[in-house]
Write a structure and sequence with these properties.
single chain; about 500 residues; mainly alpha; Four Helix Bundle (Hemerythrin (Met), subunit A); Herpes Virus-1; three-stranded antiparallel beta sheet; 16 helices; 12 strands; elongated; RBR-type E3 ubiquitin transferase
């Protein structure tokens, strides 16, 4: 069934190019609405298979000891294969992103050349020093030859200078990336050399801890949980931008980049968006206020719920919080307020006009991004209200606790859909024009409409509305999964 849906989506994506060539949005809406009528009933979300879920991701939590054992096994396996020391094997794995097969193949071709290309060399004694008491080029003090150490890049320094160099580097948080002291020498120093020279036990322990952290961070299938004071390490079968939920601290994050989960937006795109928001958010916050005037009677209204379907307490006019348009047009027609309308002649305008248009575009997407973030916070309040209302209903013999659980499930699904919807706006902001963007904006608009319908119903549902609300939940989740199947990059 999933293959059939994807094929139909492919045909729909191809057909959407006609829309960009001049066909009306109404014609495209009718075609895509018919597509959803044909396919929505065929999608069974009550018992989705692992392959059907676009967010399915296999991972397991590890404790520090388990992670250390796993790393040591990989290091030992490379030591056995290449006949190198554990510290050298560790540096090779770090330098080449744990690609063991590639390391073995290149090392067997030319062992010494491969190490030099990797900026890795083994310990070297003082065979290139002249005289019984040569001078250290760093401290300019003469020492016996046995006080000098170095690596096979040929640079020799006294033990005290190496010790001070290692101490400084470790205190700065550098461990596996410690380089030779010589100017512009990229050769890395191995762990056994560092631990032998270091004279402070506390720094030696610190080095081991930092080195372990570097190993975990560099491993493509391991990641520290970013939760506060959480020591869990997540192990995954593949390095993908998928959602991880830590069962220990309840943190939710993207496995690939470690920040908050951001589907369907890619890791590099969300980082660009967050950086831009940090730079421009004050301007956006200034323009986007917490209160707006009713577009009919102009009374000031404060948004106190997650739903964007607003009803004026004075004139009872139903309108959209985002675009201030009549809400009726959002339910029956294309959900226009989620799509940015660019000036078609912007390329011919002056630099100042283009700059204003660029700011206008950013503010459009930022306001909707921020609005969903605020709505998610307000949904927490809605959940608390539902719990209180359920207790009151049960106390008044208006159904049992089980009868009202569907409201809590609806509230949880609402947050899930709204979270995905929030992260569609950075995705849309950076998308190039074309048929694919047209398709994305349509699916985004449909999800937006269903989320707002669900939010409106959740806040007002009674026990007799269960069937209607559960049907709305199914529709909203199907819209969400369809969007992710088409646009979630793995």
């Amino acid at each position: 069934m999933s293959g059939d849906v994807n094929r139909q989506l492919s045909h729909m994506s191809e057909a959407s190019s006609c829309y960009s060539d001049g066909n009306s949005s109404e014609d495209m809406d009718e075609d895509i609405d018919q597509y959803y009528m044909d396919t929505t009933d065929d999608l069974d979300l009550d018992c989705p298979s692992k392959t059907d879920d676009p967010e399915y991701f296999e991972y397991e939590p590890l404790q520090v000891m388990d992670a250390e054992r796993l790393l040591n096994e990989e290091i030992e396996a490379l030591c056995t294969k290449l006949k190198v020391s554990p510290s050298m094997a560790k540096m090779l794995l770090l330098r080449h992103n744990w690609q063991k097969e590639e390391i073995i193949e290149n090392y067997q071709k030319d062992p010494s050349g491969f190490l030099i290309d990797s900026h890795l060399t083994s310990r070297r004694k003082h065979d290139n020093l002249i005289g019984p008491r040569p001078m250290c080029s760093v401290c300019c003090v003469n020492y016996p030859r046995d006080r000098f150490h170095g690596v096979t890049c040929g640079h020799m320094f006294c033990q005290d200078c190496w010790d001070m160099h290692f101490q400084t580097q470790i205190q700065d948080g550098i461990t596996t990336a410690i380089e030779c002291m010589a100017k512009e020498c990229p050769v890395l120093v191995t762990e056994d050399f560092v631990c032998e020279v270091l004279t402070q036990p506390k720094l030696r322990d610190k080095y081991s801890k930092f080195s372990f952290n570097d190993l975990i961070k560099s491993h493509p299938k391991l990641r520290f949980c970013p939760g506060v004071d959480c020591a869990v390490i997540i192990k995954a079968k593949e390095s993908k931008a998928k959602k991880v939920e830590c069962q220990t601290c309840k943190a939710s994050f993207c496995f690939r980049c470690g920040i908050s989960y951001h589907a369907p937006t890619e890791c590099d795109v969300i980082k660009r968006w967050l950086t831009k928001c940090e730079d421009d958010s004050e301007t956006a916050n200034y323009i986007s206020a917490h209160t707006k005037d009713c577009p009919r009677c102009h009374v000031c209204i404060e948004k106190n719920g997650g739903c964007n379907h607003m009803q004026c307490p004075e004139c009872k006019y139903d309108f959209c919080w985002m675009c201030l348009g009549d809400w009726k047009s959002h339910g029956s027609e294309y959900y226009e307020c989620s799509r940015y309308k660019e000036n078609p002649n912007i390329a011919n305008e002056s630099v100042h006009v283009q700059a204003r248009e660029a700011l206008k575009k950013y503010l459009f997407y930022y306001e909707r991004w921020e609005n969903h973030a605020k709505s998610l916070q307000l949904e927490e309040t809605t959940t608390s209200k539902i719990t209180t209302r359920t207790q009151e209903k049960v106390m008044n013999n208006q159904g049992t606790w089980i009868d009202w659980q569907y409201l809590l499930r609806a509230a949880a699904l609402l947050k899930k859909c709204r979270y995905t919807l929030q992260y569609t706006y950075p995705y849309a902001y950076y998308m190039d024009k074309g048929s694919r963007k047209v398709l994305f904006e349509y699916q985004q608009a449909q999800l937006e409409a269903e989320v707002e319908n669900l939010s409106w119903k959740v806040e007002r549902a009674e026990i007799t509305d269960r069937g209607d609300l559960e049907n709305q939940m199914d529709v909203a989740e199907k819209r969400r999964q369809t969007l992710l199947k088409d646009f979630l990059e793995v």
